[in-house]
């Protein structure tokens, strides 16, 4: 009969152990799946681990998980199916029962050589840090922080540190996302980033602004400050103080909403505030390329009734908004 009184003493270790075993098993599965070009299902791996540990708990067994060293040895020796694991377990059982005394005097460093040789390809994966750093500094930092945390704090705490740090990086990206101004390529209806395409030109009197993130309560202030600074080189305080000099040369601001996958109620309020701010400056603000989820949110929050019709509208594409602006 399980001793319920021990639960409070081991629950924290059990949770950490469950996370670590699943993370290690899934990581190994992904490594070998990538190498041998087959797909894995994380849910299937989770069910398999849960079932195995549930059954093993009735026989006082240790928690089971994937073994980095044994998996590497089996893979290097050509193991393909679960039969290889059964054969490997049988050999280990024979060694423990009958050949153990013969290996008693063998130094552990000699036995460890077998594991080190099998793990050689795993150690080479440290090169992935260089690749991750070249592709994205954020990914490189996440890789390095997780690696150092696992080395110095242990696998369980290290993985938790890595997960928390990754969530912090994702949160920072949401709060301060990338934004840019778009311009049109000559003789086309294509609008691209002005920073990356030198051939692109701005349309006189217009600013086409693109915000590459969802718009919600965490980044609403950043969105408002960024769109005013990028389009008319102003801050929200300048509007309050009545400093409108920098906005004299812009008559239309077009917001490309195609990267905005989600807008919450506070984001809708922010859009209304921005449109109202541009109205005070006699600048029209048009939204275009809104995803269906964003349009549905506009309907639920009565957004269309809250915006001034003469200074704002929604268009299916950037080019439609540009054509309309030139005709008004």
From TrEMBL:
GO terms for biological process: transmembrane transport. Residues 196-325 form the STAS domain. It is found in: Membrane. It is a multi-pass membrane protein. GO terms for cellular component: membrane. The chain crosses the membrane at residues 15-33, 45-68, 83-104, 109-126, 141-172. It comes from the Eukaryota. InterPro entries: SLC26A/SulP_dom (IPR011547), SLC26A/SulP_fam (IPR001902), STAS_dom (IPR002645), STAS_dom_sf (IPR036513). Its main location: membrane. Keywords: Membrane, Transmembrane, Transmembrane helix. Pfam families: STAS, Sulfate_transp. This is Solute carrier family 26 member 10-like protein. The lineage of its organism: Eukaryota, Metazoa, Ecdysozoa, Arthropoda, Chelicerata.
């Amino acid at each position: 009969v399980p001793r319920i009184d021990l639960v409070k003493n081991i629950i924290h270790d059990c949770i950490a152990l469950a996370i670590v075993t699943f993370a290690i098993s899934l990581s190994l599965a992904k490594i070998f799946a990538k190498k041998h070009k087959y797909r894995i299902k994380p849910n299937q791996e989770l069910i398999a681990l849960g079932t195995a540990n549930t059954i093993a708990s009735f026989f006082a067994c240790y928690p089971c998980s994937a073994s980095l060293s044994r998996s590497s040895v089996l893979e290097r020796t050509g193991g393909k199916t679960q039969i290889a694991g059964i054969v490997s377990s049988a050999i280990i059982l024979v060694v423990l029962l009958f050949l153990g005394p013969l290996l008693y005097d063998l130094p552990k460093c000699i036995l460890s050589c077998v594991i080190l040789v099998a793990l050689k390809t795993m150690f080479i994966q440290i090169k992935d840090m260089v690749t991750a750093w070249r592709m994205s500094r954020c990914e490189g930092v996440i890789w390095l922080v997780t690696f150092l945390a696992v080395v110095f704090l242990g696998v369980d705490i290290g993985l938790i540190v890595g997960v928390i740090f990754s969530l912090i990086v994702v949160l920072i990206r949401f709060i301060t996302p990338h934004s840019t101004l778009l311009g049109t390529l000559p003789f086309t209806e294509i609008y691209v980033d002005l920073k990356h395409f030198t051939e692109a030109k701005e349309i006189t009197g217009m600013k086409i602004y693109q915000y590459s993130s969802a718009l919600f309560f965490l980044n609403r202030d950043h969105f408002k400050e960024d769109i005013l600074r990028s389009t008319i080189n102003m801050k929200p305080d300048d509007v309050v103080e009545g400093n409108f000099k920098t906005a004299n040369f812009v008559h239309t601001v077009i917001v490309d909403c195609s990267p905005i996958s989600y807008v919450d109620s506070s984001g809708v309020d922010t859009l209304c505030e921005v449109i109202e701010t541009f109205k005070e400056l006699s600048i029209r603000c048009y939204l275009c390329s809104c995803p269906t989820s964003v349009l549905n949110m506009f309907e639920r929050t009565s957004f269309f009734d809250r915006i001034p019709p003469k200074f704002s509208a929604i268009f299916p594409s950037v080019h439609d908004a540009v054509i309309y602006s030139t005709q008004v």
